[in-house]
Amino acid sequence: LTFKIAAAPLNMWAPDVYEGAPVPVTAFLSVVSKTAGFVILLRVIIICFIAAPGIDKEPILLQVQPYVMVLAAATMIIGNV
């Protein structure tokens, strides 16, 4: 899933693809691919944190926030190095 949204640690492919592809293909990849990746990631998060038996039903944002923060920080740090 992090490959589709170009998040760390699988974000090294995006600059090469965006540089070498024609403008319409780059636009398609940057919008449709990321949207599909985020939708799939959201579905996995909902299944893991809401539909899983035996967990309390606190808001999903509070449960997922640490994982999303680590993924976002790693993507920003690795992407800028």
Automatic annotation (TrEMBL):
<keyword id="KW-1133">Transmembrane helix</keyword>
<keyword id="KW-0472">Membrane</keyword>
<feature type="transmembrane region" description="Helical">
    <location>
        <begin position="60"/>
        <end position="79"/>
    </location>
</feature>
<dbReference type="GO" id="GO:0016020">
    <property type="term" value="C:membrane"/>
</dbReference>
<dbReference type="Pfam" id="PF00361">
    <property type="entry name" value="Proton_antipo_M"/>
</dbReference>
<dbReference type="InterPro" id="IPR001750">
    <property type="entry name" value="ND/Mrp_TM"/>
</dbReference>
<feature type="transmembrane region" description="Helical">
    <location>
        <begin position="35"/>
        <end position="53"/>
    </location>
</feature>
<keyword id="KW-0812">Transmembrane</keyword>
<feature type="domain" description="NADH:quinone oxidoreductase/Mrp antiporter transmembrane">
    <location>
        <begin position="2"/>
        <end position="80"/>
    </location>
</feature>
<protein>
    <submittedName>
        <fullName>NADH-quinone oxidoreductase subunit N</fullName>
    </submittedName>
</protein>
<dbReference type="GO" id="GO:0012505">
    <property type="term" value="C:endomembrane system"/>
</dbReference>
